[in-house]
Specification:
The structure is a single chain. The chain has 203 residues and is an all-beta fold. It contains no helices and 18 strands. The strands form 7 sheets. A 3-stranded antiparallel sheet has the order 5-6-9, with no helix packed on it. β5 and β6 form a beta hairpin. The model has no long low-confidence stretch (mean pLDDT 91).
Length: 203
């Protein structure tokens, strides 16, 4: 912001006094809105990139006359936010990791804070979707026959936002563990070439 000096004079019927000693001041307000540039989904988290408030068309700096002290990045749900200290000189871009986030769809809002207060919020970032690993399969059964076993199970009750792509059936026992991969949509498989009389565990 621009610096100003102010003086005061007293006036009576005979004229005006000399001016007082000048007092300097700089008008300032809360910051203008930052720009939420991108969001990248992670493991129960998101990396949000943003840039400082740009200068205004009338030449007023983005900090509105008072240096920015910090930024606050807030998720659209879950009451989750993170504070990012401002740097001096300010970089062109900042990034912040927001966590923990539950499974769901999010966007993010960024605000800048200076000595005057909290500034205008950014527009929403691009949306992202947080996913997680599925819950476990249930009702696993194993039916043994000559040198083989057929295993069946029920699909998980929740895929946590990401479609199940397949299942891995592991047998322990015998000389070494054995695995069988089954594509999604199938909830049973048979494993052969087992040794009769050996106890195996399917999982």
């Amino acid at each position: 912001g621009s610096a100003y000096n102010i003086t005061v004079t007293a006036t009576n019927a005979l004229g005006s006094s000399d001016p007082s000693s000048p007092v300097a001041f700089t008008p300032a307000g809360t910051p203008f809105a930052p720009v939420a540039d991108y969001a990248i989904a992670g493991d129960a988290s998101a990396t949000v990139g943003f840039s400082p408030p740009p200068p205004q068309s009338n030449g007023v700096p983005g900090n509105n006359g008072s240096p920015i002290q910090q930024y606050v990045v807030t998720a659209s749900q879950g009451n989750v936010s993170v504070t990012v200290p401002a740097q001096s000189p300010e970089p062109a871009f900042y990034s912040a990791v927001v966590s923990p986030l539950s499974v769901g769809t999010y966007f993010f809002i960024v605000t800048a804070v200076n000595a005057i207060g909290v500034g205008a919020p950014s527009g929403p970032s691009p949306q992202i979707t947080i996913t997680g690993t599925p819950t476990l399969p249930t009702t696993v059964t194993a039916t043994a026959s000559n040198q083989s076993v057929c295993v069946s199970w029920s699909a998980p009750s929740n895929d946590n936002g990401a479609s199940i792509t397949g299942y891995t059936v592991q047998l322990t026992g015998g000389k070494s563990p054995m695995q069988s991969f089954v594509l999604a949509g199938t909830t049973s498989t048979c494993v052969t070439q087992l040794t009769n009389g050996v106890l195996y565990t399917a999982s």
